[in-house]
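Observation: inputs received (chain + adenosine monophosphate).
Thought: call the complex predictor directly.
Action: predict_structure
Action Input:
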Amino acid sequence: MIENFKHTSSFSNFTETCELIRNTSSKNKKVDIISNYLSTLDEESLYKAVLFLSGRIFSRGSPHILNIGFRTIMQSLFEISDLNHEDVGKVHLEHGDLGNIAEYALSKKQRTVTLFSFAKDQLDSLALNDIYLQFRKIANLSGPNSNSEKKNILKGLLIRCAPLEAKYLIKIITNEMRIGSYEGLVEIAIARAFRKDVESVREALLVSGDIANVALLSKNDKLQSVTLKPFVPMSFMLADVMFTGDEIVEYFSKTLYCEFKYDGIRLQLHRFGDNCKLFSRNLSDISYAFPELVGSALKICKKETKNDAGEVTAINFILDGELIGYKDNRPLPFQELQKRLRKKVMTNEILNEIPIKYIVYDVMFYDDKSVIRDSLITRKKILARLLLKDKNIIIAKSTFVKTGEEINLNFKKSKNEGHEGLVIKDPESRYHPGKRGKYWIKLKEELDTIDAVVVIAEYGHGKRAGTLSDYTLAIKDFKPTTKGDNDHTLESKINNDPSSFLRIIGKAYSGLSNSEIDFMTNKLKSLVVKDEGSRIMVKPEIVLEVSFDTIQKSDRHDSGYALRFPRIKNIRYDKGINDIDNLEKVQNIYLNQFHIKNKTKQ
Ligand code: AMP
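Observation:
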């Protein structure tokens, strides 16, 4: 039995499984391969295998970051093998992937072994856990010598790798696990391996954000015990769209919560004990940008405490809300707020120039207990128990509405106060992480904007010569609610095969300031996947929010639609590839746009 574990937990077993997955096109067979593999693993290896298969190194929310650069990898390969620059060029052209270069390098073994003259038993086979521990060691390195120490550890690992193992080791490090075993498939495979239903695995994942832990819980029959974890961000609940107040009232036919739609950054605030962290929509930690908010959150206590001095009740909570720039009693334009995300060091000057307000509209965790399964009414009552100590944090005002007229009235009020529109909410709904269901409905006056990702960038002319100022944009052809898939698997899907999930919607070149174009130029250059001279194909990473006059049908783009008079409203630093809009939204806007246009003219 022990022998068996030793074998199944080996890295070579993992890489053979990856190759099998890679060589199978059937989704169902891939799931079978993964689930068979997972069911053979002990707990320790299961955790690591699931992380690596889902293209992760550490679980979401982990403080560890590997950070091994291209140079370190290449130097390591040069130093342990007979690899030369000519080979690198050749293999890179053929495969375009560092993993393949590593495989090639390790196939030139002779020099490797003689150079290091390791004793045979030191070259024993690698286990998944060995790799994970070395990754942890690398992540813990800091200081001036850390790069060379990283290189030594990496070399130590590579030297113990067979060529195929080296290929996957490097793929894991460079986040290039394009084997089609993206998170969505791993989820189904976990369910199949441990005989759980896919929906409960998915729900557990959306709540905890930690797929490796979800695998362990499934194996141990403890999925029900999954809970939110401090400082592990949970997927946000999303809003659906309707186009008029009457439509909303007709759909629900009951009393609803009505809130302003604030135009800012979606922000999840975790406060546990003396620590507080802020997570953006793409679940990255953006605490560095808003230190005053962290300070304000740490001061919050329970209203029942009443004792202002007695900060004994260090209450724990996770809040959901919108962060806006706010000055002189008006919201600041969204672009102002974005400026803060781009600064690495926050000075008092910036804090004063762009003051913020965090408007809290939901709570997911309160006083050591998850409240996502409670109704919105209960969650609002919980919010009312927070004693807020300064103006940086406020609770969103909710009013009750029953008629289209009331909704229209609130809509005007929201616009007058400088906000974007309304979000209407079903009071009985629970918090649905990661879902865009008909529980929250957004209502905006203008045609909705589209969040799209830049896939191609072209050099401009005249004043814009030398800058990458024309952007070809894509949306996703992917429904987040489809059974067997979910939203945050898009990234790995796209890595696997961009053409099957991204659809071009048009080009945009106006709306950005010169400094934003400079930013785009630099960033895009770091994302090149193919250079064609006057234009470059880029890794789909930068998300732009575009407004437009109308949407038209078009044969020119593979989405089947084109944006008329597109204008870039914002670079969405806070959004990632998983947050871009899908084809269904474009189709909906297309179908509804004339109705809206006519209505606003009345
Ligand atoms: P959109 O980004 O256009 O899909 O609109 C949904 C977004 O509106 C959410 O993700 C929030 O960031 C934002 N929002 C602003 N105010 C509210 C609110 N009161 N309730 C929920 N979401 C809101």
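Thought: report the result.
Final Answer: Residues 238-444 form a domain with the D-amino Acid Aminotransferase; Chain A, domain 1 fold (CATH 3.30.470.30). The pocket of adenosine monophosphate is lined by residues 238-239, 259, 261-262, 266, 322, 361, 396, 423, 440, 442 (CB under 6 Å).
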